[in-house]
Amino acid sequence: QVQLVESGGGLVQAGGSLRLSCVASGSIARLINMGWHRQAPGKQRELVAVSTSGGTTNYADSVKGRFTISRDNAKNAVTLQMNSLKPEDTGVYYCHALVATIGFNNYWGQGTQVTVSS
Which in 2, 36, 39, 65 has the greatest CB count within 10 A? Predict the structure, then answer.
């Protein structure tokens, strides 16, 4: 079993910054992808940013140029630096990991609330 523990999030005014962190622990043979998704009220969960084991990163168009994902493979950790936040960035942010154990499995954190006030 793999556990993802998130930290960060909170309330910030538009234009401000927040930093989210996530650490994976447990039976991890190899972390393939680590990233962040978010879910706004009444909307589906969407990908925000992902970091692959190959070192590439991908971002949702809506956050490009404002958010930066970084990964520390030695610590099985991923962070999301969010700058120039907008009210539409409000939602619950979930850490996600694709892990190779016996096969490939997806794991999710418990979610952390990000609220951007206008």
Answer: 36
91's torsion region: left (phi>0), alpha (psi -120 to 50) or beta? Answer: left
Give the residues of the chain that fall short of pLDDT 70.
none
- The span from the CA of 94 to the CA of 10, in Å, is 14
Q: What is the largest CA-CA distance in the chain?
A: 46
CA 44 to centroid of chain Cα atoms: 16
From the CB of residue 35, how many other CB atoms can be counted at a distance below 10 Å?
23
Q: What is the pLDDT of residue 29?
A: 79
**Which of 110, 97, 114 lies closest to 5 in space, CA to CA?**
110
Residues in the chain: 118
